[in-house]
C-alpha cells in the first residue's frame, strides 16, 4: 500500500503553457492550485519566501504566502535554468553564457559576479541547467562537461572558496537535471534515461523525461515532462508516456502514484 505523508510543494513548469503550481497532499487527497501563470524554471527558498527564475520575467521574489513582492528583468534572455541560494545571493544558471550569474537579492536583484565554465560566452556549450549549494560546495549538472573534462553529460562539484572545480562526480550520463544533496547522498535525474539516481543506484524509472526532484524523509517527488525528440528516444525505450505530472514515491516500499499537472514540462520541485 502506498504510504505518502502529507506535504506541500511548489512545482515550476517551463516553456509553452508554463506556470508555478502549489501541490498539497492531505489525508491521501491531492489538491493543485496555480500561483503564477507564466513560464517558470528554477525555484528555491529564500528566508520565509521563495525565488523563481523565469525566462519571461527574470527573477521573481515571493513571500511566504506566495504573493509576488519584487521582480527584476535581470537575466532575461540568458536562457535561465536552475537557481540556488546562499545568504542573500542567488546563484542562477545562465545557460546561454555557460555561466552561473550571482545576484544580490538584498540590493535591487543586481548581478554582482559570475562563475563561468567556458571562455566561449556566445555559444551554449555546456548546457548548465541545475545547481545546488551545500556549505562551500556548488553542485552543477550539465549536458556537456567542458574543457579538460570528457565529452558527455555530468555533475561537477565546484568549490566556492577556492573558485574552481573540485571534483567531477559523474560523467557520461544522459542529460542530467535536478541535482541535489540530501542527508549526504547525491540525487539527480538522468533525464534521457527516464530515471532518477541516488548516487550510483537507480532509485526510480518511469516512461517519460524526468526533470524536477525533491526528497523529504522517505517521500520523493519526481517530475515527468512530455518528451521531445520521440523518434530518437524510441530507439532507447520500448514505449514513452505522453503525460506530464509528478510521481509521489515512497522510497522505502518503492510504491508510487502519479499526479497529472496541466502543463507540458515540469522544471523544478521543492517542498515547502
What is the overall pLDDT average?
94
Number of H- or I-type helical stretches? 1
The share of residues in helices is: under 10%
How far apart, in Å, are the first and last alpha carbons? 25 Å
Give the ordered list of helices and strands. Answer: EEEEEEEEEEEEEEEEEEEEEHEEE
Unreliably modeled segments = none
Cα gyration radius (Å): 17 Å
* Proportion of strand residues: over 45%
Largest sheet: 4 strands, antiparallel
Secondary-structure content class: mainly beta
Number of strands: 24
Shape: globular
Query: What is the strand arrangement across the widest sheet?
Result: 3-2-1-24
Write up this protein.
- This protein is mainly beta and 272 residues long.
- It has one helix and 24 strands.
- The strands form six sheets. It has a four-stranded antiparallel β-sheet with strand order 3-2-1-24, with no helix packed on it. The chain has a four-stranded antiparallel β-sheet with strand order 4-5-6-7, with no helix packed on it.
- A hairpin with a 5-residue loop joins strand 22 (245-250) and strand 23.
- The longest helix has 4 residues, at 230-233.
- The two termini are 25 Å apart.
Topology (elements, then pairings):
Elements: E1 7-13, E2 19-26, E3 29-36, E4 43-46, E5 49-54, E6 58-62, E7 68-72, E8 80-86, E9 89-94, E10 99-104, E11 110-116, E12 128-134, E13 137-142, E14 153-159, E15 164-173, E16 176-182, E17 185-190, E18 195-198, E19 201-205, E20 209-216, E21 219-225, H1 230-233, E22 245-250, E23 256-260, E24 266-271
Antiparallel strand pairs: 1-2, 1-24, 2-3, 4-5, 5-6, 6-7, 8-9, 9-10, 10-11, 12-13, 13-14, 14-15, 16-17, 17-18, 18-19, 20-21, 21-22, 22-23
